[in-house]
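Researcher: First entry.
Model:
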Amino acid sequence: MSGAAVEISGPPVPRERERARHPFARFVVRRLAQGVVTLLVASVVIFLATSVIPGSPATSILGHSANPQAVRVLDHRLGYDKPVTTRYVDWLGHLAHGSLGNSAILLAQGAPKAPVWPTIRSPLANSVTLALVTTLFLIPISLTLGVIAGVKSGRWPDHVISVMSLVFVALPEFVVATILVAVFFVALDLLPPVSVIAPGEWALTNPKVLVLPVLTLLAVSVAWTVRLVRVGTIEVLKSDYVQTARLHGISEPKVLRRYVLRNSLAPSIQIFALSVQYLFGGVIITEVVFGYPGIGKQLVDAVNSHDTSVIQAIALVLATIYILINIFADLLVVLLVPKLRTQL
């Protein structure tokens, strides 16, 4: 034999083996890290946006004719006698310890401690309930109508669904809410026009108060979600694998169930993620119209009263929800589409 060295390929090194074995786990870690960075950037924007509001919370709450000493004391308790950078670092420190700050309104009323979380906990639970109940109806309705419009493209079911969706897309939430109140309260006297929920009471205790807000949100969100699902369904119907399945004699219901619906679901996940984000952050008008004691209504009240800590806390909670919804949607898409998993 010649003296040439024979190269023998051994097993992969542990690090390479781990990379090959856990691509999805690394993707999850990477998305979570991106979420943390995004939340940090959002916190900077939120803090700076609330810091440029003219005047101090103490002056707005106590009034311009208040005792200057009382204003200085409240500003000190809120930390407004410090530079903006110092206040931001202090805010991050409080967040790291699980504190969202103190409510200026409660401090002005003489409370020794006024943590924000107990103030926003109940409204947040009400908004989450409203968003989840709406989502439970939004997904099946949008998928059903969108797939029907896509399958029946160019025929009368598609025309009816498309025209109705255009009408509701063009109507603002307060217009839809006003119409629903006129029909279900003024004309039929079936549902309350105001969603009254006692403090500490769960919204589902009296489901009637949810009906009109849910219908308002559904009318707006289903309208544009159906249009996007329809477009995705039409694209799937034109794909080669659907045409091949039909040529092989597979029945149309089975083609729709096995190929069209399944492959339309993956791109629709991002659409539904945007819809759920809207339900959490875009419910302000709906909550104000119906007097629903949710986080949107409380945000409006906090802006009117210049309660900066409450504004910052609500905005940060909403930003966290947005980021988590995006991460969950990305992970779900990767799990549903095998081709994406091979690209991790």
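Researcher: Second entry.
Model:
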Amino acid sequence: MTAKNIMTSRVITVHPADKVSDALLLMHKHHVRNLPVVDESGEFVGLFGVRRLGRLLLPKAASELGRYSLTDLSFMPENPGEMMEHMHEIARKPVADYLEKEKNLLFCKPDTPVPELLKLLEESKDTSLPVIVITHKGKKLVGLVSVWDVLEWIVFITFVKHDTDIE
């Protein structure tokens, strides 16, 4: 069993020039945590997701402190007005300004076996892996494998397949 067998191939994507607000609406509408970012020819550029969004919502000082592993930010005042203003500013900008670049992400190929997918998902900072085919132009996005895709496969082979083998 490989990534090709369990991946989601109908992936919702955005382009680098799309606004963050449009990406957020898509994420909310489709209940997804990550949106692959592709250029006009479908080449994979990066990933925009909730992990990155969480860092964007923190005040700049907190983001900088996070680089030094300081996790207690209770000293910071909460100001909903400033946070909303900051979010509106981010929402108007292009996704390209805030994506996780391809070089910082783990990905797999369609022929990646499920045990290797499990290892990659464990190492990944995200809940899904882009499935990429390498072409002469770059990396073409062909799907996503999420933790849920792997879980469905495990449930199938553990319970459904096992029950049909008995009968």
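Model: Note on the second entry: Residues 3-166 form a domain with the CBS-domain fold (CATH 3.10.580.10).
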